[in-house]
Write a structure and sequence with these properties.
about 180 residues; alpha+beta; 4-stranded antiparallel β-sheet; about 30% helix
């Protein structure tokens, strides 16, 4: 059984293997892999991963034409397919790196943000969360801390607050500003 650190390191290395310049022959299922790398214009798209407790967040960014966005169901299905391709790639690379498998379970629907950059082009950024299997020992982000403030610190803090006064310091020689209202 792998530790939390080993699982996260393996997934992080798998994501790094998907970087565009790592290996040009790597097939993830992204748009940048289509066409000839020199003769065709390159499409800007890619993904990154980040971790929080027992969750992995995958962010997919892409440049799209506005005409690709209009059929809403087709666009959302395309984004979901990109996440499925990325997930398949991450699991395959993780298996190559660690010789073990990892369980990643989709949590909810992807969060999709579309921004127009011109009348023709737009920028899409979508985020999907996954539960990482085998990370039950992590502390939940939403768990409320049961630590209390030390009584001596609380007393010192109250004493500090009592020192505050509204008096003008004795070394303040500035003239009164007529535009400033009295407190």
């Amino acid at each position: 059984m792998a530790t939390v650190l080993e699982i996260i390191k393996g997934l992080n290395q798998a994501a790094a293997n998907g970087y565009d310049s790592y290996d040009p022959d790597v097939e993830i299922g992204l748009k940048r892999e289509e066409g000839h790398p020199i003769l065709d214009s390159r499409v800007i798209d890619g993904f990154r991963v980040r971790f929080a407790a027992n969750k992995m967040m995958v962010t997919y960014q892409s440049e799209m034409r506005l005409e690709e966005l209009h059929p809403r169901n087709r666009f959302e299905n395309e984004i979901n397919q990109k996440f499925a391709d990325i997930l398949r790639f991450l699991k395959k690379e993780y298996k190559k790196i660690t010789k073990e498998s990892v369980s990643l379970k989709q949590e909810g629907e992807p969060d999709i943000l579309v921004q127009t950059t011109s009348r023709v082009h737009s920028w899409v950024q979508a985020t999907q969360q996954y539960d990482i299997g085998g990370l039950e020992e992590t502390v939940s982000l939403r768990k409320i801390s049961d630590r209390s403030i030390d009584k001596s610190f609380e007393k010192q803090f109250q004493d500090f607050l009592e020192l505050a006064t509204d008096k003008k310091p004795s070394n303040d020689k500035a003239s009164k500003n007529p535009d400033t209202p009295e407190a």
